[in-house]
Amino acid sequence: MFCLFCKNTDTEVIETRVSDDGTTVRRRRACGKCQKRFTTYERIEELPLLVIKRDGRRERFERDKLRRGLFKSSEKTTVTTKQIEEIISGIENELKQQDSTEIQSDLIGNLTAKHLKKIDKVAYIRFSSVFKRFVDVEEFEKELKKLL
């Protein structure tokens, strides 16, 4: 790390603090040449998750978009806002564990359906009917039979 004032590369870390959430490290440094002090911050560089849509387009993963879909499918059910936030966080964590930052939209849909299926069957069916694009009543009926 070079000094901001004299551009000397001989700097020393004199104090280190980790942020409360653990995502940032604050370092106080002193220059060995001019003796001035300055602060640097170290953060993890997170690559954005990109969703590959069915038609091949790519767009950034948006928690809000997933949240809207979950709220829509959970209307008038027993699913709580807390449960929806837990589902979103769980899905996002699972996506970040993938080998690639480019994720097929089908994977997100399947993960969402899996989580909903565990907590509310009505919300699961509502979500699945849109996600799986049921074309006729027979497909819908087949999915219902799997639940029963």
Describe the 3D structure.
This protein is of the alpha+beta class and 148 residues long. The protein folds into two domains: 11-43; 50-147. Helices cover 44% and strands 22% of the residues. The chain has five helices and six strands. It has helices at residues 63-74, 81-96, 105-119, 121-131, 137-147; strands spanning 11-18, 24-31, 37-43, 50-52, 58-60, 102-104. The strands form two sheets. It has a three-stranded antiparallel β-sheet, with no helix packed on it. The protein has a three-stranded mixed β-sheet with strand order 5-4-6. Helix 1 (63-74) packs across helix 2 (81-96), helix 1 packs across helix 4 and helix 2 packs antiparallel against helix 3. The termini are far apart. The mean pLDDT is 89.
Based on CA atoms alone, the radius of gyration comes out at: 24 Å
Mean pLDDT across the residues is 89
Q: How widely separated are the two ends?
A: 63 Å
Low-confidence stretches: none
Strand order of the largest sheet: 1-2-3
| Helix and strand composition category | alpha+beta
What's this model, at a glance?
The chain has 148 residues and is α+β, with helices and mostly antiparallel strands. It contains 5 helices and 6 strands, in the order βββββααβααα.
Keywords:
single chain; 148 residues; alpha+beta; 2 domains; 3-stranded antiparallel β-sheet; 3-stranded mixed β-sheet; 6 strands
